[in-house]
Amino acid sequence: MNKKHILSFRAVWFIERKAYGMRKKKMDIKKMTDIALSLLVLMGAVGLAWIGLTGSKDIAAMTAPYDGAADTTFEAIPASAKVIVIDPGHGGSDGGAVGSKTGAVEAELNLKVAKLLADELTKLGFYVVMTRTDENALGDTKAEDMTRRKEIMQLENVDLVVSVHMNKFRDRTVSGPMVFYMKGSSEGKALADCVIKCLCDAIGRQPRPSNPEDLFVLRVPAVPSILVECGFLSNADDEMKLISEEYQRLLARGVAEGIASYIARTINGDSE
């Protein structure tokens, strides 16, 4: 499928906007253009300075970020770009797990972490496509919703897929993030290993292994894919952390760093 079709599946590209203290929908075209140009100059300067100081490969320099000029132009995507699909699990009438103490709904938390992850990845110079960007599902039925997600995950030139979820278990003492990969996939395992390590480091938790599984969001993509369970809504301590924006940012940063590590070591052939 050609990348010109991205918008037909409601895929949205994110650039860092919060520094400007305003939501995009409230901007006029002139402000959007001025901000986009400023960001490009700033990110380009930072990337060049980093390369000059270190003399090593810089992912941001090899994957030019989306220019943010308009949400309706995606023709000029560099062939060298690294494109990552972020899939916030659930949505619409399918809220997913519910917090035992606060009643926090998984679908809402998934979306918050996914958007923060999109921001982190964009800062690193990656192109980001999200399967959903609001509280709604992608279809009127679960089957239609999953079909639309599949179409996005199988877009041409996508490099990685990351599905964001919250966990729940009958044993309420179980806590902490988990990362799953498609069983039998060596590339999926390599990605999952990088992400769980960086994720545990980011939140100051003892490392835990990644986990093989056979799930729709892992099986459908033709590229390495992982499902990140950010924590357990059935665990009181995890639940209070997961509703905190500060903790959500740590999770997003950890996942982004894990993805960057995987791409640097695996796709670009760098040593660890």
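Next protein, fold it too.
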Amino acid sequence: MNNMRDTVPTLYIVVPCYNEEEVLPETISRLSDVLSRLVEKRMVHADSAMLLVDDGSHDNTWMVIEEHFRPNPYVKGLKLARNAGHQHALFAGLMYAKEYADIVISIDADLQDDVDVIEDMVSKYREGYEVVYGVRNNRMTDTFFKRFTAQTFYGLMEKMGANIVYNHADYRLLSKRALNQLSLYQEQNLFLRGIIPMIGLRSTEVSYDRAKRFAGKSKYSLKKMLSFAFDGITSLSVTPIRYITGAGLIMSIVSLLVGGYSLISHILGHVVTGWTSLIVSIWLIGGIQLISLGLIGEYIGKIYQESKRRPTYHIEAVLQAKQGLHGNLRESGG
């Protein structure tokens, strides 16, 4: 069966940006070179472009985008009215780009992902794949702490029953068909790494070596990484709730055994005052109860957020070429 696509697709590269003024000129330069090369090889249409999504930056990120917009035909811009978070900014870019493109590739602005792999992704699309994941060969450029936390995260997600691609972040190609399916997921608690595999369309992987950040600082602190991991787990799986149920069952069995032992000791007259064991038991059970309530509260909070159906982002400004002429289109909504 031949699934090769003969038509030349229009490609949009979506780049979420948050305070990336230092690295953005180099990012634009490298992506422009990639697009030029793909256009020359007739792998993508000449209308292909990069869409830079400013996620409510506090620095000159939007100014840099505007400066490159007029002289560079490949540059498009999308400015969000406030900081919506990486996943929502990426989703905003994907939903905007799907109206203009046949395929969309998402990539972070820090240039840690190898932009030369974009050509391999497009080749896989032309072979008939709807989703192409960019997967790291290794994590040698990461610190020991970053490697440890990342491996722990992927292992934990797997144990929790979440179907995610190992060593894959948000560097991927999506066809228009995949984007249309993704648009059906109107979630407040967005975790694209777990949602996209749920779509179930034909997918494959391309591997690459991850480089160090070209410039600027990482926007993911330890607190943000832990929050991101926790959001991913609770957004995709109810397994933590089931673990709590299991822990409660185990504690109940232990309590029955201890209760039986205490009753037998009382009957035999071997009663000993157990101040230490009593205090330890109270603190242990109390701690488990508080953790359980907190986890249940986290799920209830997510239900509360989802039930309000508020828009996850608002678009403040758009830089989009119109009929061959550059124009600055401004709109609001989300």
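About the second fold: Residues 239-308 form one domain.
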